[in-house]
Give the backbone structure.
Amino acid sequence: MLSQIKRNLKSAALAISCSDSTLAEKLSRPLFSRMNIAFNPPGEKVNFAGTSSAACISIDFDVTRPDRFEPNRSGTKRLVELGEKYHIPMTWAICGMTAEQDPESYQAVLRSEVRHEIGVHTYSHIAIPDHDDETIRADIEHCISVLHLPYRPTTFVFPWNKEGRYSLIRELGFRTFRGKWRAIGVPEQVEGMLKISPVQYLGPSSYGSTKVINKLMDVCVKYNSVFHLWFHPWDLVHPSLDRFCSTTLEPVLSHMSQLRETGKMNIMTLGQLSESYASSQYNMSESRVSTL
Ligand SMILES: [Zn+2]
């Protein structure tokens, strides 16, 4: 009951933030700060391959406890189906060990008719700041070798979102990573890579929060920002995979694809988003130079 009231209040506050009133911009920063979301919309519109806002989804494909094996498998299967139903490309941050333990699920992602991006989540799910360079390098190279891809992955997701060792991560070929903290804005340069901050995690605590999540998406459209959703396949099974998908995940994917159909928001992988952001920045600086 209390959580329902809280959700209704959040939803109402987000509706104000989405409105055209002069109050909206003033209210947005404190409102999002209460939700632990930094509010940093860009000063000028970015061109995300034709739209001024973009959505992306990152999925952490990792089984770090035996009881997560089956939920990871059923969640992955369903996500591949939903990606095809809504034509949504997603970025899969693959833990190499999990791909080896469950090749069937990993292959399902690769074989999908939607071209998903394969990112790296280390081989053995190690916390990057806790290890030396040699260990990190060996672990990530081992992950890339077991993924058997025809290209070298360029998107990295830090296990437990424990960020660090940026220059080493960049040296290993990565150009994009998911940040730890929630933020509404555009990608941010960090030591030669682009950080794409998450806006929303989907899991048991977001069950039934569709209205709030979809309003957050509308806010990202209004403020020319990126809506970045992330989750684990094994965390979509409460109270059941069917119920979670029908009441929470599908309405969110459906809203996302409607925004795309109406030309308000592109849906991209993290790698594509990063590329389109970088070329938009390049074009902006070129046009500034040419008007001098
Ligand atoms: Zn993980």
